[in-house]
Amino acid sequence: FGLFARASLQFGRQVAFIGADGDPTPANGRSFLRQHPVTYPSYTIPVQGPNALLKGGIEGYPTTIYIDRDGNVAGVHNGQYSSQGVLDADIDRIALDSR
Q1: Which residues fall within 8 angstroms of residue 7, CB to CB, at 6 or more apart?
Q2: Do the bridges between strand 42-44 and strand 63-67 make them parallel or antiparallel, or are there none, so unpaired?
Q3: Rounded average pLDDT over 11-37
Q4: Distance between the two ends of the chain, CA-based, in angstroms?
Q5: Burial 37-50 (b: 16+ CB within 10 A, else e)
Q6: Per-residue pLDDT averaged across 28-54, rounded?
Q7: Residues near 84 by Cβ (< 8 Å), separated by ≥ 6?
Q8: Which DSSP state fits 63?
Q9: Chain segment 54-82, per-residue pLDDT in tens
Q10: Which has the closest alpha carbon to 29: 52, 50, 46, 7?
Q11: Is 63 in contact with 52 (CB distance < 8 Å)?
């Protein structure tokens, strides 16, 4: 989770970051964010929310969905990112190149 907090500080003026919590209990998400604060908004969403974005739905959490300026899915990363470098490279390649 810290990888996204750092990436949002680095890329936040170029890329919009939004957190989406699929836990049906909003108190769990609020508690998590108190322990792991981020600079971008985070929302509790229905589980079907992210599933509606991807044909066949998402594979599981965490899933990172990159959406371009036209509202189309530009890329998907399933699972946790292994390092800051891998996340930053995806942001460069998917989010910044799709502008």
Answers
A1: 17, 84, 87, 88, 91
A2: unpaired
A3: 87
A4: 25
A5: ebeeebebbeeeeb
A6: 82
A7: 3, 6, 7
A8: E
A9: 777 777 788 898 998 888 889 999 999 99
A10: 46
A11: no
